[in-house]
């Protein structure tokens, strides 16, 4: 048994058993390192991209098999090969390579770890089951391996849903999806003692506080900056369990109500007051729990609808690549949200996060302002003042 004393200390790290970049019609990434520039498409299958011969060579044993199955498909069918279908194909192809001793198996890198993952087959609803069966059918058609059944593939899709991880870069932009069977053993807490980050494709679990000898290492599967209801809903929907962590068991208690109202509720009408608001019993407005001022529902609705219109505008602007306009629209949203939400509101924080990402994207990050994002800890964007040049 180990104990981890220092915040930031690495507890465990693992390379993915399988992973795929989140390629779409608008963005392609290298299958090896997820880079998005200088890419060349595999000339045989016309599906997979590489940034150069290094990544292509490293991936060759697995891609040789994948390339064979993808090359059999006609052009239209190849378009239906989504990243999740590719992840499933790679899972079976890697198992085959290890069974045939083409690539080695180790205690932390073998298919039996995938077999042991929780699938929740008896907890998922019929609609979801049907969806898994349909996509499993497609995988079956592509692979043409009579020894694997549609049921088994569907079960593996269910496993991926509650065990696979989104691989993000240091700016927390999603790059791809990976399955890390050892990391998947780690359970969730809304008050975690560790965090999962990615260094390229490598998944690294780091302590965020002292983890005493024998204590369970717990990470958060979801954005922790949310009300208990929001967190519970997200965990139930994707991971099919009810969290009973120290934060969740406080549901309905004063501390929990206060935290939820700060994170997701409105601000006091008085700019100088930092109180949190609760809905009045007659449902006509919201009263500040510190100074007693009331905000009407109508006033709140009006600002919220202006925010809504601007948010839709950012979607349209983003899709046509107008990043400068995106940034100025987020600035307007931030101004309105400052009037609407509590200063520690998640919505406000998310807008600021998008604003900073927008600055980076449109390359107008003003070094004079000296603010750069350095990470996201427990869902809060941490910023760091850059040292001014001597
Ligand atoms: C990635 S797996 C974690 C490992 C899993 N406990 C196992 O034994 O294989 C995710 C699943 O673990 C369970 N789980 C994780 N954290 C939990 C928690 N705090 N309370 C209850 N179940 C949890 C849920 O069933 C969830 O879908």
Highlighted features:
binds S-adenosylmethionine; alpha+beta; three-stranded antiparallel β-sheet; 390 residues; single chain
Any chance you could write out the topology, listing elements then pairs?
Elements: E1 10-14, E2 18-21, E3 40-41, E4 49-50, H1 53-58, H2 60-71, H3 75-79, H4 83-99, H5 111-115, H6 126-143, H7 150-163, E5 165-168, E6 174-179, E7 187-188, E8 194-199, E9 202-207, E10 218-219, H8 228-239, H9 254-264, E11 277-279, E12 285-288, E13 294-296, H10 297-319, H11 323-340, H12 346-361, E14 371-377, E15 380-385
Helix pairs in contact: 2-4, 6-7, 10-11, 11-12
This protein binds S-adenosylmethionine.
Précis, in short:
The chain has 390 residues and is an alpha+beta fold.
Description:
The protein is of the alpha+beta class. The chain has a domain of 151 residues. The protein contains twelve helices and 15 strands. It has a three-stranded antiparallel β-sheet, with no helix packed on it. Strand 11 and strand 12 form a beta hairpin. The C terminus is likely disordered.
- Strand content of the residues, in percent? 15-25%
What is Rg? 24 Å
The largest β sheet comes out as: 3 strands, antiparallel
How many strand elements?
Answer: 15
Small molecules bound in the structure, each named once: S-adenosylmethionine
Helix-strand pattern: EEEEHHHHHHHEEEEEEHHEEEHHHEE
**Stretches with pLDDT under 50, minimum 5 residues:** 364-390
What general form does the structure show?
Answer: globular
Q: What is the topology, as strand order, of the major beta sheet?
A: 1-9-8
Helix proportion range: 40-55%
Number of helices: 12
Alpha-beta classification: alpha+beta
Mean of all residue-level pLDDT scores: 91
Measured distance between first and last alpha carbons? 47 Å
Pfam families: SET, zf-MYND
InterPro entries: H3K4_H4K5_MeTrfase, SET_dom, SET_dom_sf, Znf_MYND
Domain SET: 21-222
Keywords: Metal-binding, Zinc, Zinc-finger
